[in-house]
Amino acid sequence: MEIQRTFLFPLSPARATLALLVICCAFFWLSCGGGSESAKGTLYLYEPKNPTTLDPACSWGVFDGRVCSMIFSGLIRLDENGQVVTDLADGLSVSEDQTRFQFVLKEGIHFANGDPITAYDVKYSLERVLHPDTQSTTTWVLEKILGAKGYTEAQAAIKAGASHDEIDPVFLEGVPGIEIYEISGHQVLNIRLNEPFAPFLSLLAMPAAAIVSATDVREAKEAGRSFEENPVGAGPWKLDHWTRDKEIVLVRNDKYWDELPKLEKIVFRIIPTDANAVSEFETGGLDVLNVPLPEVPLWRQKTQDKAILHEIQQLHLFFLAFNTTRKPFDDLRVRKAMVHAADIGLILKTIREDLGIQAKGAIPPGLLGYDEERQPFPHDPELARTLLQEAGYANGFECEILYTSPDTRPVLEALQAQFSKVGISVRLNRAEWSTYRELRNQNNYDIAYYEWYADYPDPDNFLFPLFHSSQNKRYRNAEVDNIIETARNLPDETTAHFIDIMLMRNPKLVEVTREKAVVDAKERERLYQLADRLLYEDCPAIFMWHRKILQAVNPRVEGYREPLTFNGTRFMEVETG
Amino acid sequence: MLDRRALKRIYRNPLVHVGLALSMLLILTALFAPLIAPYDPYGIELVERYQPPSAQHWCGTDELGRDVFSRVVYGARISLLIGVSARSVALLIGVILGCMAGYYGGWIDQLIMRAVDITMAFPFLLLVVAIAVLIGEGLFAVFFALASVSWATMARLMRGQVLTVRNYEYISAAKAYGAPGWLVIWKHILPNCFAPALVWWTMGLASAIMAEAGLSFLGLGAQPPAPSWGSMIQNGGDALRVYPWTSVFPGIALALTVLGFNLLGDGLRDSLDPKNLRNAVG
Amino acid sequence: MTTYIFRRLLLLIPILWGVATITFFLARVAPGDPLSMLAGQRELSEERRAQLEKELGLDRPLIIQYADYMTDVIKGDLGYSFVYKQPVTSLILECFPRTLVLAVSAMVVAVIIGIAGGMVSALLPNTLYDRIAIFLSLLGISTPVFWLGQLLILLVAVNWRLLPPSGYGGLPFLILPAIALGTQSVALLARMTRATMLEVLGEEYLRTARAKGCTPVQVVFRHAFSNALIPIVTVVGLDFASYLSGSVLTETVFSWPGLGRFIVGAIANRDYAVISGAVIFCAFFFVLINLIVDILYAWLDPRIKYA
User: Which of A13, A233, A562, B178 qualifies as a cystine partner to A72, CB 3.0-4.6 A?
Assistant: First the structure.
């Protein structure tokens, strides 16, 4: 009996149950974070992953950039159609050679925390990106500015302990190419470039050129708090909170200089799987859905009262790049054989549900230099075999395709089967993003998957970073390099419109200069068309397609438009019922 | 060793029968996959994609028009291969290290047991993910990761067994006659540990197969176009609502396999564990 | 007892040191470019790459990085995430409570179903009910959690619209993931409950208790069940510990913003400090929970004495 007593559990079952219930309730109460009922005046969007950062100086991803362009304003921005419009700049004038830009700031504008925006903030923001402490990887956006690289190096030297005497004094003050002053009460900012750079204005719409508050950044640094906890910008939205892996909530910024957005709140939910996004859209937890491929046929048949469908062509390129420094891909015949062996049209029609336009070069439709006329190489396994034979690979060869996005897998599996029919045996090597990047850095691959979205709506953004030999070390074509370099230093048509009296002081001359610049700008189009054709003929890659998306929008949403570039919309006109 | 009474108990347990049947089914499927599968599991027919189950395609076709049934059949090979190889290697490592720790004691014991502690303190799935990342994604990584993690429990089990057996009269006697350590372990200790090791191996087979599927689901396991059940479930996941057969059938196959080994292991444990003599089913 | 606990806590040190060291080198030896998460598709120029590596301290010899890291860890500083630019500790503390909520709820589900099922099985041993219960619980453990999760979402959330399909929030969001995760422990719990209860129900003293006039309910709950608690505590403890770090799959399927997903993300990002910090954190919890289980053991069963 003695043992028995000590064995008894001190709680009676009833009391134990009660205690358990209380604990449960406490837990649920603690974990309560509000429901997902879609509220009026709130728009629910989603992304599969967290943004890497909300600091515009470091942002590079599509999602980061999207949120940054809503929280922050720059001197100029892009609209839905990719056109340059002024934002915090009131006026903009450009010199005849397009190397000097003058911005006059709007008056009486404020950051979301109420601080006034000065030209100093602008200068500080741009220099902050270039400063080594910021650890930005998007310095390329600003590196055409006179003295930008020198500034970064000088600051790094100072950090490393160099005394001020050893540093060129121009860099102590800041970037020499950025000057601020006041003209009759107006705050003015001058930017000088090393050389003319056609896409420069569009670059200024990138997050890296967003304006942050100098005071706030310094205070945050002193207080030891991360800039991202409470980023202060001058965009129409401000960050309410970011719960990692759950959501980013933006609320209207009442201090915005222009008319306020019609919505009160935008919620970006983080939903990692497509299946969940569909479920959420159907149950009302999301307002906009990118229909996942398996569901596309089903949605196309759906009635429009449940969801309004749009097919949207994106500024995008999907291609498989050859490592032309490796055998056998140094041989054009081999590259061409693989292009002919692939039945891209069929894959596009089946696996991609016709959502995309087959690529026949690097430049997507809608940009300068896109050639409507040219036809993609036909699917022709016979020809492929002949080409392989000529190149001395009658029995085929083995190679590897390096990729990272799991969505690409079915496409690559289909290609794998198609290649095997001409005797090329392909292994698929999926590597995680960081491993993939490392292998690419080391030039250690045969064929690599690339997916590219435009940063700015200019063909330079597809040709220079992807096929210029200074950027892509696995392909070198002197002719293409040459054309790309020439074209990016030619006058740009958009920029030409801003060539202005303020710098020239002679209205008549301005008119003539502008017209001449517009004519010169036509030369860019010709050059890009030529470069694109050369790429098409030289097959540095299997150009796959420019993708489209099927987007479903909840009928309660009005005025939603998918922009051309990631930073092209701030949802000003969107309303939800 | 398995004595007659234990075998009798195993024989009388109906759940073990089910487990055995399912396991045999898996093994036979894996062995005779080419005879069973009506189609080439890698045969892509883009125009035939997403066909619902029919007389031609018993389990329908997937997003590339491959026959799901054939892929499920071949998937049995991957599951079995990974499960058996990872588990056996882990068993070997565990037995050797466990015996050494238990038999020799002292600093060897300390060293091995701290290694066991550390391995067990690692979050299992995370360590497996890390190893898969380290040596590159693929089946070998899964095998390597599973083996290098799961030896620890075996080592601990083995050490316990050796410690209990070590002081038995006949072992002391053998030692006294000057038999070398390895011979004592081999001839006298190991046979005593056969039953728990068998249970451990069988039960673990289920979890190893599950882990392989989980890793493939996360995209870290078998690489395309290998028909791993985990990656089939992952690939079919987005299509679950529209084309449920692409992920439901591999899911059922996986569940039945794991169930089979679990039932078998469970039954073996019930039957071989002397503590359960009285309550053993039947 | 106190010396025992002290000794166990002392044992934590070599374990955590081992875990930290292995993780440190595993993460850094692994292929992968840590700057890739900062750079995107665009190639970094050589000079920019060198500058960034210097800024992040990645250019120093590995052994010095290791020494620095260990010194920081001893001081209780788990370092700084270079992707999120925040202290690792605050990042972990942000995700951990959510995983804890999920783990506790899953355990509650598992305990309720598992113990109830096991008890009824033990009271009706070798009947059809018993066999079906065991079969079902084993089926539960055999169903892959990611697959079960997908099916639950499709059925309960999308077709029947009873619960939200995914995400993080109040009770409704918790139910499906808790069921999916908890199912994994039901089988073992039911089995344990059944086996120990059968064992206890056959003991002499229960017959005595019954003879003394205790009602069957009292016998089952007060006597038999309380004895079955010891193995149950073990199972609950061990499974709970594994939930805390191993619910990656459940978290992925249900978009639950927990620690598991966070760590897998960090591994993919090669966010070294986060990987090491989070693994040390998980290992610490694992060992701690093991210790608690052992102490509970002693508390529940006075026959067990720790020297």
Answer: A233
Contact C291, C9 (CB under 8 A): yes
Question: What is residue A198's predicted lDDT score, i.e. its pLDDT?
Answer: 87
B72 in Cβ contact with B229 (< 8 Å): yes
Q: Do B217 and C146 touch (CB under 8 A)?
A: yes
Among C227, C248, C278, C289, smallest CA distance to C94 is for C278
A70-74, A500-504, B117-121: the lowest-pLDDT one: A500-504
Q: With residue C103 as reference, give the H or E element that holds it.
A: helix C88-123
Residue A3 pLDDT grade (very low, low, confident, very high; cuts 50, 70, 90): very low
Could you identify the residue written with the tokens 């079960």?
A: C148
Give how far C94 is from chain A: nearest CA, Å: 8
Euclidean distance between the first and the last CA atom of chain C, given in angstroms as a whole number: 7
Q: How many CB atoms lie within 10 A of CB A551?
A: 18
ipTM (interface predicted TM): 0.81
pLDDT higher at A36 or A71: A71
d(CA B122, CA B133): 16
Q: Given an 8 Å threshold on Cβ–Cβ distance, is A413 in contact with B224?
A: yes
* C-alpha span between C168 and A372 (Å, rounded): 48
pLDDT of residue C6: 86
Q: Note whether C126 contacts B254, CB cutoff 8 Å.
A: no
d(CA A532, CA C68): 51
Integer angstrom CA distances of residue A250 from A43, A65, A239: 10, 14, 5
Cβ-contact B123, C267 below 8 angstroms = no
User: CA-CA distance, A367 to A376, in Å (whole number)?
Assistant: 18
Residues A14, A20: Cα–Cα separation, whole Å:
10
Closest residue in chain B to residue C137, using alpha carbons only: B259
pLDDT at residue A228, rounded to an integer: 78
Structure tokens at A517: 């610049």
Q: Mean pLDDT across the stretch C116-137?
A: 84
User: What share of chain C has pLDDT > 90, as a percent?
Assistant: 9
Averaged over A522-548, what is the pLDDT?
94
Identify which of B105, B123, B112, B124 has the alpha carbon closest to the alpha carbon of residue B210: B124
Nearest CA among C197, C163, C204, C194 for reference residue C180: C163
- Residue window 80-109, chain B: list those with CB within 8 Å of chain A: none
Total residue count of chain B as it appears in this document: 282
B225, two tokens? 């176009």
Cβ atoms within 10 Å, residue B8: 12
Pinpoint the alpha helices (H) of A131-273: 148-159, 170-173, 200-203, 214-223
pLDDT of residue B281: 31
Predicted structure pTM score: 0.84
Q: How does residue A31 score in pLDDT terms, banded at 50, 70 and 90?
A: very low
